[in-house]
Amino acid sequence: MRAYVYVSLKKSVLDPQGKTIQAALRKMGYKGLEDVRQGKYFELTLDGGLSREEAQAEVERIAREVLTNPVIEEFQCSLVE
Amino acid sequence: MRAYVYVSLKKSVLDPQGKTIQAALRKMGYKGLEDVRQGKYFELTLDGGLSREEAQAEVERIAREVLTNPVIEEFQCSLVE
Fold first, then answer.
1. Tens of pLDDT along A50-69?
2. Do A62 and B35 touch (CB under 8 A)?
3. What angle do CA A74, A76, A80 make, to 5 degrees?
4. What distance in Å separates the CA atoms of residue B4 and residue B55, rounded to the nearest whole number?
5. Residues B61 and B19 sit within 8 Å (Cβ to Cβ)
6. What's the CATH fold of domain A2-80?
7. DSSP track, A43-64
8. Taking the mean position of all CA atoms in its chain, how far away is CA A70?
9. Where do the structural domains in chain A lie, given as residue ranges?
10. Using a CB-CB distance cutoff of 8 angstroms, which residues of chain A are in contact with residue B45?
11. Confidence of residue A49 (pLDDT cuts 50, 70, 90)
12. Which of A58, A77, A55, A19 is nearest to B42 (CA)?
């Protein structure tokens, strides 16, 4: 089973890295961009010892307690068989 | 329109950052993890001036030419209205 965790800055938090990428892309001539935000992405491969519910709970716990800084970041999880 | 670009190391490339996260999680007592890989994640907001096909092409061009190092990385794009 595989789990994907996407961690991004909360909407209310300024993302200077995203702004820098956006400015660079505009200077390079890419069009139509209104905003760019950057985040992190984790791919967790789980062994077969966990049921789907246990895996979901474990991945959410890892994302919440370790991979995300809850003060400024939020996360999304998805589980794929 | 919003586009999501996920950039990760190619499967054939060693991911020391992912390995470090995996070792740390194991030490902290999280179970059932076989592998962890880390990547980057970009959220691009596009203005309304592009059709869906144009937007898809532009986002793929940005991902390929700017956001990804094609020697060691690969990307996936998805477009959401």
1. 889 999 999 999 999 999 99
2. no
3. 160
4. 12
5. no
6. Mth169; Chain: A , (3.30.1280)
7. EEEE-TTS-HHHHHHHHHHHII
8. 13
9. 2-80
10. 33-36
11. confident
12. A19
